[in-house]
TrEMBL record:
The lineage of its organism: Bacteria, Bacillati, Actinomycetota, Actinomycetes, Mycobacteriales. Keywords: Endonuclease, Hydrolase, Nuclease. This is HNH endonuclease. It comes from the Bacteria. One of its GO terms (molecular function) is endonuclease activity. It comes from Mycolicibacterium nivoides.
Length: 164
């Protein structure tokens, strides 16, 4: 049997699953114990060897993961939507073809050829490069991208990519 005070240097988190067993979040071990004592969750997995939490009147075994007793509806939130301003900011207002100042966006694979409005298909471009590329792929236009377009993560959104 291990006691929690042996693990003080390590932040202990507990996985919380919805009633349909999809991961909702991770909470601190203290919040997990509160949820257990309230009866809002039940234990799915325990530590091996067991970790016990002691209070003056109770000893509780710390879980690794818990599930909610009742389903919690999570409303749909559309993902990271592509916008003109978002693409320009992600690329640092730098043209992906020449490295100059960008003021438009370009679809790497043109929409008329099945290209999508996606983070991986849109880059910032200056007006001359956008006009020169026209309704062609970069290879057909004899142009190359200075970096590959990517979907920015929520935390690192709009980070300027390193020029190749």
């Amino acid at each position: 049997m291990r006691h929690l005070h042996q693990d003080r240097n390590r932040q202990q988190t507990v996985a919380v699953y919805n009633a349909d067993y999809r991961v909702l979040t991770h909470v601190s071990w203290q919040e997990a114990i509160r949820l257990l004592l309230r009866g809002s969750v039940y234990v799915i997995e325990r530590h091996s060897p067991a970790v016990h939490i002691h209070s003056p009147s109770t000893i509780v075994e710390l879980p690794v993961s818990v599930a909610l007793r009742e389903y919690v509806h999570i409303p749909y939130r559309p993902g990271n939507r592509v916008t003109r301003q978002g693409v320009l900011a992600r690329d640092g207002f730098t043209c992906a073809y020449c490295g100059g100042r960008a003021d438009t966006i370009d679809h790497v694979i043109p929409r008329s050829r099945g290209g999508q409005d996606s983070w991986e298909n849109c880059v910032a471009a200056c007006a001359p490069c956008n006009g020169r590329k026209d309704n062609r792929t970069p290879g057909e236009a004899g142009m190359r991208l200075l970096w590959e377009p990517y979907e920015p993560r929520e935390r690192a959104r709009y980070r300027v990519p390193a020029l190749a």
